[in-house]
Amino acid sequence: MKAPADRGDGQPILLQALDGHVPDRTPIWMMRQAGRYLPEYRELRARAGDFLTLCYTPDFAVEVTLQPIRRFGFDAAILFSDILVVPHALGCDLTFEAGEGPRLSPVPDLAALKALRGDLDADKVDRVLEAVSGIRAKLPRETALLGFCGAPWTVATYMVAGRGTPDQAPARLASLTDPAFFEALIDRLVEASARYLVGQLRAGADAVQIFDSWAGVLDPEAFRRWSIEPIRQIVALVRAEVPDARIIAFPKGATLAGLTELVARTGVNGVGLDWTADRRGVRYALGAKCALQGNLDPLALIAGGTALEEAVGALMQDFRGAAHIFNLGHGIRPETPIAHVEKMIALVRG
Ligand SMILES: Cc1c2[nH]c(c1CCC(=O)O)Cc1[nH]c(c(CCC(=O)O)c1C)Cc1[nH]c(c(CCC(=O)O)c1C)Cc1[nH]c(c(C)c1CCC(=O)O)C2
């Protein structure tokens, strides 16, 4: 963990936790906290017409990012954008079909990769960075601002298939049948993602999160090669430019051994846990090494009532006295009642 001396009191509590302190109260934010469960989001989304218009119009992105902060007073705002902005800015066509998720022009081989841009399209990235600085300007001082990107493995799964698939077989197969292509794709994403995160940090993000939502489909050796190693490279490239950059990794579905190795090799300041994580095991292995973020089951938040009370109680108990950031184990679902979110926050804040 980092030397606490100059980064403790007076900082937003989420940053205190990332710096290895145990804050006076547990910081809380929610994956996908700006989204369809909020009527004010649905209203603005209808006005914008389309999800990508929200992402690339700085005034809209700023407004949507701030909606859950105004309503709930979370301890962190997360930039409203998407992990697929990176392949989009590399030249892939991208659309979001209602109810079907993302569609990209597939990049299944080296020829398709060579047809993409070498660097990120500034027209797209600058709009995102303008949103970052606009959010920072409007955010209360005590609220941390998180930037993010997808991890190369997860972004590559969408690029190879051109869409999400149940077990990401197309990308796993490509990594086996054409490792030279797959390595080149991952390298391109490492480079672009590091640049993108440096831009976000310079524009005013206090920390960044790397989402590896599909890490859980990899076997241990593939996890080392396609999840840990690219994240390690991104962390190194970002810290070469922004030495004190705070970085959280979220390798969804990683085992305890995988999480432990990831933290040791990458030097991230925090690790995001999905709802299946063995909390006590994680705390024992990693509690002294980095902040632990998570891990309420999003379904407990839909259920509400005693199921929610018990789940939050057990979670808080397991992480009491640790550098813990309360969060969900994955994104909040659109059908979640707002009253349950309010209840969860009241339970965490006591
Ligand atoms: C895999 C992934 C994606 N995007 C993201 C991930 C990693 C996290 C995870 O595992 O969920 C990350 C993401 N996507 C979005 C954010 C915004 C910040 C936040 O509030 O958390 C973040 C951090 C907005 C979004 N990204 C998307 C929406 C819904 C768009 C809409 O219809 O309004 C939002 C609010 C669309 C999206 N974007 C993606 C998919 C598969 C989908 C379709 C599924 C869905 O609709 O939930 C790719």
Automatic annotation (TrEMBL):
Pathway given in the UniProt record: Porphyrin-containing compound metabolism; protoporphyrin-IX biosynthesis; coproporphyrinogen-III from 5-aminolevulinate: step 4/4
Lineage, uppermost ranks: Bacteria, Pseudomonadati, Pseudomonadota, Alphaproteobacteria, Hyphomicrobiales
GO cellular component: cytosol
GO molecular function term, any single one: uroporphyrinogen decarboxylase activity
PANTHER family, alphabetized: METHYLTETRAHYDROFOLATE:HOMOCYSTEINE METHYLTRANSFERASE RELATED (PTHR21091), UROPORPHYRINOGEN DECARBOXYLASE (PTHR21091:SF169)
Keyword terms, alphabetized: Cytoplasm, Decarboxylase, Lyase, Porphyrin biosynthesis
Major enzyme class: lyase
One Gene Ontology term from the biological process aspect of the record: protoporphyrinogen IX biosynthetic process from glutamate
EC code(s) of this entry: 4.1.1.37
Subcellular location: Cytoplasm, Cytosol
SUPFAM superfamilies attached to this UniProt entry: UROD/MetE-like
Domain Uroporphyrinogen decarboxylase (URO-D): residue ranges: 27-36, 146-162
Feature type site, description Transition state stabilizer: 82
Listed name of the protein: Uroporphyrinogen decarboxylase
Main subcellular location: cytoplasm
